[in-house]
């Protein structure tokens, strides 16, 4: 599962879009449960992964490639998955946290796809969107975390993931051999069917 790759790309994207450079804030993937927020001292965007589900899109074909040993292999089609994150902002007063959350919403709306910072485990672009309100209720998520309800959004990240089960492709043809049978005086015989009767004919007849 390419979660480290995906989350590294999300962190880079957020820092660039908000912006939130290393020296002024953090991006965290911890569970914001209980008293977690009391330890936050800088502006922080928290992305809590709470669900992984099959996405309602078609699998993506993966072309043949050479593995580390130089053998040509191919993967089964990459499966589309949807990763759902509860995104919240911390580490400041209400005004500062709301400003940071608003910037995150704008970042999602202006970046429907993410291309940079990905490797071979993820096939094609990463699609980013806000969850449909009727599908996820953030109050239920906060209740499950044991924390107080706070402003947040649900970020849905959809991409196709390889299965890491490459199969060896049949080796290419290296040599073609041709053999020619010697001519004989005996003409070639063959049979043909006419209706229900078989008749033998000579070649050239």
Automatic annotation (TrEMBL):
Any matching Pfam family: Pvc16_N
Lineage of source species: Bacteria, Bacillati, Actinomycetota, Actinomycetes, Kineosporiales
Domain of life: Bacteria
Annotated ranges, domain Pvc16 N-terminal: 8-174
Protein name per Swiss-Prot or TrEMBL: Pvc16 N-terminal domain-containing protein
InterPro entries to which the protein is assigned, alphabetical: Pvc16_N
């Amino acid at each position: 599962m390419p979660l480290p790759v995906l989350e590294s790309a999300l962190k880079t994207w957020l820092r660039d879009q908000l912006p939130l450079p290393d020296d002024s804030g953090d991006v965290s993937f911890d569970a914001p449960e209980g008293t977690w927020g009391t330890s936050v001292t800088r502006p922080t965007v928290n992305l809590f992964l709470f669900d992984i589900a099959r996405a309602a899109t078609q699998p993506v074909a993966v072309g043949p490639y050479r593995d580390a040993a130089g053998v040509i292999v191919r993967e089964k089609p990459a499966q589309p998955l949807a990763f759902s994150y509860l995104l919240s902002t911390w580490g400041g007063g209400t005004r500062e946290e709301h400003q940071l959350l608003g910037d995150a919403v704008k970042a999602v709306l202006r970046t429907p796809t993410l291309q940079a910072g990905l490797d071979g485990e993820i096939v094609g672009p990463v699609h980013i969107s806000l969850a449909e309100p009727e599908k996820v209720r953030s109050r239920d998520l906060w209740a499950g975390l044991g924390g107080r309800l706070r402003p947040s959004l649900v970020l849905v990240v959809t991409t196709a993931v390889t299965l890491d089960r490459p199969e060896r492709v049949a080796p290419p043809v290296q040599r073609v051999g041709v053999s020619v049978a010697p001519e004989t005086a005996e003409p070639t015989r063959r049979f043909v069917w006419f209706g229900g009767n078989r008749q033998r004919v000579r070649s050239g007849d």
